[in-house]
# Entry
Amino acid sequence: MEINDFYLRFNEKPEYLYQAPSRINLIGEHIDYNGGDVLPCAIGLYTKAYVRKRSDQSVRLYSENTKLEVTADINNLKYDKSLGWANYPLGLFYILKSKGYSINYGLDIYFSSNIPLGSGLSSSASILDLTCYIINDIYNLGLDMVSIAKISQESEIKYNGLSVGIMDEAAIALGKKDSCLLLDTHNIEYKYIKIDLGKYKFVVLNTCKPRVLTESKYNERVYECNKALEVLKPVFSIDNLCQLKITDLDKALSLIEDNNIKKRVRHVVTEEERVKSFIDALDKKDINRLGELLKESHKSLKEDYEVTGDNLDTIVDLANKVAIGARMTGAGFSGCAIALVDINRFEELKEVVLEGYKNIFGYDAEVIAIDIVDGPNGYKL
Ligand code: ADP
Ligand code: MG
# Structure
């Protein structure tokens, strides 16, 4: 994306350039809507946007990724399926206006992203956080980064109708170079943990398989967890499933009839434990323990939470031949995985994964080296 692309589309020069990263989650998967602790970090694949103020009440949006342009009236916004991707940025105008923030003229925004869309690296939270950051900056709303994350999540839930947790929006808004975020999704408290593992780095493995039916499966897991909580809440005096102690797990499981729901609870409770062990292993730089935990997390997501699928299982198995450990990241059902690898063996990892994957599925996967980066930023041109 060049300045000139904006000019060719909107016949004016842009005034600002902004960007927001994407994210991986190191561990703590599918527990951000169960009050758990998660360990995401922002990575250097970005949504970028050139922006110009308008003098009327229209928002004009274009995405180089979808090649679609949408114009909407900021006083007349409503989710409209036919507007597709544009519902993400439009939702922020709607939500912020409905909270009483003064947004009394429109914008032209030209988006472009090198994040694989719909692949579990949270391009949706990236474009939402970015839009919220842009609006906050241009209209001087005075929001801090936690508010930007919360409002973007609210927009994805209320405007786009997806019951997402806070992890993705927070991971991106609060991103910090070479650190992961330890985010307590119950109290929305966080701190940073330095990722300093020498020659061992996290890399991304993209199955390049488009996700299908993800939303309904995701919402089904949220529903199953809520069902389990209804039964367990009065017995154990808990507010969320992650507050259940590992020592109470067997008793809790004996109170649940449905076999699938039992498995979901087992994943949630053991995953919360793995997050704690992972933090300990990061602190001790215990590479082998980190690898074991990545593998255990994937196994639990595959067998108990049932959100992986053939492509993710295969890419993770292939990566484990060279890497210290690997697991799916994000919502799952295809999409991306991460692997922890001795960076001197990166080329070998790439070869084993790409060749093995193509032999099985007949199309290419991607292995991407990544940096852990800061959250959104931008400047006046
Ligand atoms: P993920 O967040 O894992 O990438 P989602 O399905 O949650 O997957 O979000 C992907 C959707 O977000 C896309 O289908 C599109 O509607 C929207 N989106 C994200 N980034 C962009 C972009 N740069 N341009 C247009 N739409 C985008
Ligand atoms: Mg998303």
